[in-house]
Write a structure and sequence with these properties.
It contains 6 helices and 8 strands. The chain is an alpha+beta fold.
C-alpha cells in the first residue's frame, strides 16, 4: 500500500497517483532531450528500464509518484507532467521532492509546475505531517532553482551529486513564504 497517495486538486491542476498505463507516456516525456538534460542520469530510458522502475516503485512504500493534470473546463483533465515525493520517512518527518517534469511542450512555462509543487508540499506538511521536504537540483538549472526558492526552499547541507545543490523547506518556512 502506497503512503497516502490520494489525488490532490486545487481547481487548476490535479495530481493523481501514477498508474501502470502512464509509464510509457512518462518515459516519452523523460526521453525528450531538453527534459533529460535536467536529470542527474540523462541517458535515454528503455521500455525495459521503465518497466523495472515501475516494479521497484510499486514495492516501495515510501514513494508517491503523481501525474500532473491540467484541468481545462472545455477539454477536461490533460496529463502534462509528473512529480513525486520519495524516501518518505515518518519517523524523521522528512521526504525528498523531485522527478518534476512538465513533459508536454505546450504546457511549459504556464505555472503548472508551481501549482503542482505547492499542492505536493502542502500534502507533505498537512496530510503526511512531515516537517522537512528536501531536494537536489543541478546547480546550473536556474529556472528550477528560482521555482524552488519561490516555494521557500533554501540551501541545506551538502548535495550527494557533483554539480548539484541540496535545498530544503520546513513547514514553518513554507507558511511564512506563502503568506507574505
Amino acid at each position: 500500500m502506497k503512503t497516502d497517495a490520494s489525488p490532490l486538486c486545487d481547481g487548476k491542476v490535479r495530481l493523481r497517483p501514477i498508474e501502470f498505463v502512464d509509464i510509457e507516456m512518462v518515459r516519452a516525456w523523460r526521453n525528450q532531450a531538453d527534459v533529460r538534460s535536467r536529470f542527474f542520469h540523462s541517458e535515454a530510458i528503455s521500455a525495459e528500464q521503465q518497466r523495472l522502475w515501475w516494479e521497484k516503485y510499486i514495492a516501495a512504500d515510501g514513494d508517491c509518484h503523481y501525474i500532473i493534470e491540467a484541468l481545462d473546463p472545455e477539454l477536461g483533465p490533460r496529463a502534462v507532467g509528473c512529480v513525486a515525493l520519495y524516501h518518505i520517512d515518518s519517523a524523521t518527518g522528512t521526504a525528498e521532492y523531485g522527478r518534476l517534469m512538465i513533459g508536454e511542450p505546450w504546457a511549459r512555462r504556464s505555472g503548472f509546475a508551481r501549482l503542482a509543487s505547492k499542492l505536493l508540499i502542502d500534502h507533505a506538511f498537512n496530510r503526511l505531517s512531515l516537517h522537512t521536504v528536501y531536494l537536489e537540483v543541478l546547480a546550473d538549472n536556474e529556472p528550477a532553482i528560482r521555482l524552488y526558492e519561490s516555494l521557500g526552499f533554501r540551501r541545506a547541507g551538502k548535495a550527494s551529486h557533483a554539480g548539484s545543490l541540496r535545498l530544503a523547506v520546513t513547514a514553518p518556512q513554507r507558511a511564512r513564504q506563502w503568506t507574505s
